[in-house]
Inverse folding.
């Protein structure tokens, strides 16, 4: 089965000095994106979370799950997705984080990945499945340049390790209805087997 399309577009958000951050559409076909979305939505043991904010416990506004690549319970769809992303990016990913945004009310606040939890100089790759959602990428230092990306199903956002030093990224809540989306984040974590 061919997973790569010939109708791809590439957008460079940040250069190699502060990034890179690169957005590419059409990394997998719409049919394959739908198939993986359905499989993950149905078969992943999704977790809800809560955290302390403003001196009270609040629900985390999305569902989440994490897998090590060598986890025997890793869903087949994630194993296949990792093979495609590794071929596209060329990084030795060993960790997969999932976020499920159920509707327009789910979000993630602007943040950057914690560098102590990553192998230095290895990229982070985000594969989008399901409904299109807006990601806001904002430079931390002046000028606080902001980019809004519409993350389509089957697209890949590649962020360099050093981009975490210079940019925050987040998925804001929306005022209009939107369907569910799953973000599949591939990372290289220290102290884990690399495949």
């Amino acid at each position: 089965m061919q997973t790569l399309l010939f109708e791809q577009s590439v957008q460079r958000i940040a250069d190699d000095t502060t990034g890179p951050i690169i957005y590419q559409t059409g990394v997998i076909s719409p049919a394959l994106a739908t198939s993986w979305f359905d499989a993950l939505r149905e078969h992943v043991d999704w977790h809800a979370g809560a955290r302390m904010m403003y001196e009270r416990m609040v629900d985390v506004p999305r569902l989440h799950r994490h897998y090590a690549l060598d986890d025997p319970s890793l869903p087949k769809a994630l194993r296949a997705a990792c093979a495609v992303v590794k071929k596209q990016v060329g990084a030795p990913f060993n960790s997969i984080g999932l976020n499920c945004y159920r509707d327009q009310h789910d979000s993630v606040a602007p943040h950057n990945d914690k560098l102590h939890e990553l192998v230095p100089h290895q990229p982070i790759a985000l594969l989008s499945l399901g409904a299109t959602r807006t990601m806001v990428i904002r430079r931390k230092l002046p000028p606080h340049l902001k980019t809004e990306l519409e993350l389509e199903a089957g697209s890949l956002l590649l962020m360099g390790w050093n981009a975490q030093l210079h940019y925050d990224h987040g998925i804001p809540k929306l005022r209009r209805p939107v369907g569910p989306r799953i973000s599949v984040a591939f990372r290289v974590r220290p102290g884990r087997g690399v495949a």
Summary: Residues 115 and 164 are 7 Å apart (CA to CA). The first strand starts at residue 10 and ends at 14. The radius of gyration is 16 Å.
